[in-house]
Amino acid sequence: MSDGRNHEVGGIPVGSDAAAYFRHVMAAVPTSVVAVGGRADLDPVVMILGSFTSVSLDPMLVGFFVGREAARWKMLRASDRFCVNVLDETQAWISEQLARPGEPDLSSIDWSPSSGGAIAIAGTVARFDVTPIAEHDAGDHLFVLCRVDYLEEPTGSSPLVYHDGQYRGVRVPDSG
Ligand SMILES: Cc1cc2nc3c(=O)[nH]c(=O)nc-3n(C[C@H](O)[C@H](O)[C@H](O)COP(=O)(O)O)c2cc1C
User: Which distant-in-sequence residues (6+ apart) come within 8 Å of 143 by Cβ?
Assistant: First the structure.
């Protein structure tokens, strides 16, 4: 299998920056916004991610992609378990606050230890307690594979979506 490194990508308009064009096309793909919290008994660290995904049903596995050089991941990976908090549509401010580089600012964020002892944020749509079990190379990112340890009943409220460079809510399309 090719590693893709020397592969020439088609469709990029002449004269445009390839990476910027890739970002532009990817901006059309909506994502959820999750706040992955580390262990509550260590320095509180949370990282905002749009790349959280379900991986396997049996065994139950989830995962996400982190920038290889992301300083926040270097802080978070000191934890041997995480709480994945799926943000609610009213929580864009939490994403903005926690996505800033530097020390994570948890001031004014209501959190408590999750069942697995990681940072659980109040008012989120769904929460998963997970244990990281592997890191795989994924270009300039790493794929972090996690075992699911504990599932909370989702609240049923509307999730936050990131699309076209903006935070949005979910809108039910017109049926007609
Ligand atoms: C909506 C949103 C989605 C993001 N998704 C990811 C992601 O999937 N992977 C990642 O490494 N960083 C992602 N980030 C960036 C990190 O949250 C954070 O801003 C970045 O790690 C800060 O840089 P630093 O870690 O070098 O300090 C996302 C940021 C936002 C606002």
Answer: 63, 64, 65, 135, 136, 137
Instruction: Using DSSP, state whether 144 is helix, strand or coil.
Output: strand
Q: Is residue 15 part of a domain?
A: no
- Rounded to an integer, what distance in angstroms lies between the CA atom of residue 43 and that of residue 45? 6
Per the structure, the count of domains in the chain is: 1
| 3-state DSSP assignment of residue 73 | helix
Please indicate, yes or no, if residue 143 is contained in any of the structural domains: yes
Q: For residue 143, what are the domain limits?
A: 55-79+91-165
Mutate to test the pocket of ligand 1, among 23, 29, 48 (most ligand atoms within 8 A of CB): 48
For position 152, which CATH number holds? 2.30.110.10
* pTM recorded for the entire structure: 0.96
State phi, psi for 72 to the nearest 5 degrees. Answer: -65, -40
10: in domain: no
Digit-coded pLDDT (tens) for 112-170: 999 999 999 999 999 999 999 999 999 999 999 999 999 999 999 999 999 999 999 99
In the reported structure, the alpha carbon of residue 3 is separated from the centroid of ligand 1 by a whole-number distance in angstroms of 24
